[in-house]
Each structure stands twice: as structure tokens, then as C-alpha cells.
Amino acid sequence: MAIARAAFLERGYSATSMAAIAALVGGSKGTLYGYFANKEALFGAVVQDLLDEHFLPVLEVLESQPNQSLEDVLGALALALGRFVVLPDAIASYRLAVAEAARFPAMGRTFFLSGPQRSYDFLAEWMARRIERGELRPQDPQLLARQFIALCKIGPNEEILLGSPIQPDDEQTRIIAQMAVSTFLAAHAVRPAG
Q1: In this protein, which residues make up the domain named HTH tetR-type (predicted)?
Q2: N or C: which end of the chain has fewer CB within 10 A?
Q3: CA 111/CA 143 separation, integer angstroms
């Protein structure tokens, strides 16, 4: 996975072949095809590996704090998300998918399903439970998940995607996370009567 990730991120999707990856690994192309049906499948596995390494631990914040307040859990999640979306590998893989998706729609779809959609699904399940508990207004959990993640990405993420070398410091990341949580709760939280 590490070799395939480096090859895709350094060379791009179109310039990376299964034969080149097999050569870098030191095996045969046939062996590689024994694990992955095609290049799209290998790319999907690379995206899942990146997500598993960096983003799923972020989402595990949701599971590890079942009794904390909605605001506290979302705050921890927003902070972790803010750090994830500016990681060099996260930026590079997103750039790669956007740049190549028009020419390779199957790769773009694989990227979306292996990365962003998995994240939305995980967060949507958690939000559905918070709706059942009466903490969030009844709405489509998928849309809630997408909106929350979008709020957490506001800030330096877009600038970094477009080439800015400046990384946010901890204070800037904290402020963005607080704003994301405040905005989300103002729109969707159920406030106690009285």
C-alpha cells in the first residue's frame, strides 16, 4: 500500500501502471492482479488505507465518547477533522482525484466511495443515534454529516489545495473547529425547553 500510494501521489493516476507498481514492489504484475482486479481497485485500496490510517481514528472519537455532550464530541471531532484535511497525503490524494476524474470517471467514483462516502456514512450513523436521543432535529443524517464535514474544512484547506505552503497553526485550527461546531449546533441542535 505504501509503495502504491507513493506511486499514485508522485506520478498521478494516468502515469502509474500496475506493471510499474509491481516492479517497485519487486513482484510480478500477475501477483498484483491476484490481489486487485484492476488499477481502479488498487487506487481504491490506497484511498481506504489513507482513510484508515488518518481519518478513521478521527471518527473513532465519536465511539469513544458516548456519554459526553453533543457539543464536546463535535468539538473534538471538528478539531481532528481540521488537522486531517490539511495533511499532505490527504491534500495530494484529493488533488489527484479531482485532476484525473474527468478522464477516469471510474477512478473518481472509486475515490469518492472509498474516501468521502465512507466518512459520511460513519458520521451519519452517529448523527442518526443523536437524532434518536433527541439531541439533533430530525433530518437526513447523510446531509447533516456532509454539512458538518464541510464546515470543518472551511479555512486553510482550500488555500492549501490550490498551492499555499502555509499550514494552519493550532490556534487557527481550534478557532475554525469552534466556529464549525457553533454554526452546526445553532442550525441543528434541539435546545431544552424553557
Answers
A1: 1-54
A2: C
A3: 19
